[in-house]
Design a protein that fits this description.
The chain is of the alpha/beta class. The chain is built from 16 helices and 10 strands. Helix content is 53%, strand content 12%. Strand 2 and strand 3 form a beta hairpin.
Length: 431
């Protein structure tokens, strides 16, 4: 099995495309099962956030696996294959490992260095584990991906000042209000993970008084209590909007929550930060007087709060080092079945020869037969010990996959999933 990563992000697709690709959390287990039911996909992990939809898969063939992944993504999104291909990035084997580690480290995020992606990756891995769609390869990849992300954030200043998509959005909002958000009346619509992050960030920024509304009233009440905000019933949204200067939309709704009729007739400035995918704000809202809308596309264009070059370079160094370690593990794991097959073949030869000896020399006692069998097994084990230890060491080095192939060829070993089904082109993706 080989690693394949296929996805679309703010780098390759606009928010409209990401909306169509977005997969609701409740639907992810079913999509994972659909993925692993494909002919060339053995394992899958799916991540769907406000600015990224990505699948990591263990595949038996590059072209077959890519085709299977694209088919499922096209079916789920309703996007034609030609249009979809123009928005996807593709990473294979080493490039997939490097991309995964860069994502967890925040290097590939819209707000470089943000740490929210770590929690999102952890959740995606947990869902895949619960759905039993992650096997040995993706378990190892995701565990190391999370570890590398934690290392990057703890050993460098990549996440200075607690940057996130929300802080970047507030920077844009502050420009509209002349640079100061303190004392502005805020409203957060949605009390999930992004809503909670928004409430915490708005509170630190001095926005207040702050209202929170959510279709599930209990969650809004708990979040409001934790931050000294006011929970508002969802059916009182219009009244809450009338009081607000700054609105953050972060729901999981499949339909717009804020429509033009809800905001028509305002006589003072209102900034709406739409952090939801699919979008919570209908297109016509941005055309209204006194209403400014900032969405994921706008944030991607602003590219604010970049970390220091030294921190970015330090994280890139960590990623490169960890990629080498993972590839060494991967090469070692790849040769293990071949070594096991070689030892099995040796045992089979010894057993066959002992059977022949038994038929030729029926006068041997059971004790004599046992002595001969132990001696033969000991000789074979000693002969195989040094070569198998050495081949494991060589396999962990760059280009080490050739040693497993040579062993299979020399001893005519049949090792399941040991060969690739087709040639692999030189690719690295657009991301």
């Amino acid at each position: 099995m080989n690693l394949l990563s296929v996805g679309a992000s703010y780098r390759t697709a606009g928010v409209g495309t990401l909306e169509r690709l977005s997969i609701a959390g409740s639907d992810i287990p079913a999509v994972l099962q659909k993925l692993v039911a494909q002919p060339y996909i053995g394992e899958a992990v799916l991540l769907s956030t406000c600015n990224r939809v990505e699948v990591w898969a263990a595949v038996s063939s590059f072209h077959g696996g890519l085709g299977d992944l694209c088919t499922v993504l096209a079916d789920e999104s309703g996007i034609g294959s030609t249009e979809l291909a123009s928005h996807l990035y593709v990473h294979y084997d080493e490039a997939a490992v490097r991309h995964s580690f860069r994502v967890s480290s925040g290097l590939d995020s819209m707000v470089v260095g943000e740490s929210q992606i770590l929690g999102q990756l952890r959740d995606a891995y947990h869902v895949a584990t619960e759905a039993d769609s992650a096997g040995r390869l993706l378990h190892e990849l995701m565990q190391q991906t999370l570890r590398v992300g934690k290392r990057a954030h703890s050993e460098t200043g990549i996440d200075k000042a607690g940057q996130s998509v929300v802080t970047a959005a507030l920077d844009v909002a502050a420009d509209v209000f002349g640079g100061d958000l303190a004392g502005r009346k805020g409203l957060v619509i949605g009390a999930g993970a992004m809503g909670a992050l928004s409430v915490a960030t708005l509170t630190r920024s001095g926005v207040g008084p702050l209202q929170i509304t959510n279709r599930g009233a209990d969650r809004a009440a708990r979040l409001a209590e934790a931050y000294g905000a006011t929970a508002v019933p969802f059916d009182s949204l219009d009244a809450a909007l009338a009081k607000a200067d700054l609105v953050v939309c972060a729901t999981a709704s499949t339909e717009p929550v804020l429509t033009p009729d809800r905001l028509t007739g305002r006589d003072r400035e209102l900034v709406v930060l739409d952090l939801a995918v699919p979008r919570d704000v209908a297109p016509g809202v941005a055309e209204l007087p006194h209403v400014s809308v900032v969405d994921i596309d706008g944030l991607a264009a602003s590219r604010r709060s970049l970390p220091a070059a030294a921190d970015t370079a330090a994280v890139e160094q960590i990623v490169s080092c960890e990629v080498d370690h993972f590839l060494a593990w991967l090469r070692g794991a790849d040769i293990a079945p071949t070594v096991a097959a070689l030892r099995t073949r040796a045992d089979e030869v010894v057993t066959a020869e002992l059977r022949k000896l038994s038929s030729r020399r029926p006068e041997f006692t059971d004790e004599q037969r046992s002595d001969v069998a132990r001696t033969l097994h000991r000789v074979v084990q000693q002969l195989l010990h040094s070569p198998t230890v050495r081949v494991r060491q060589l396999a962990a080095e760059p280009g080490g996959d050739q040693y497993a192939a040579l062993l299979r060829e020399l001893f005519d070993l049949d090792v399941p999933h040991a060969t690739q089904a087709d040639a692999v082109p030189e690719i690295g993706g657009k991301a």
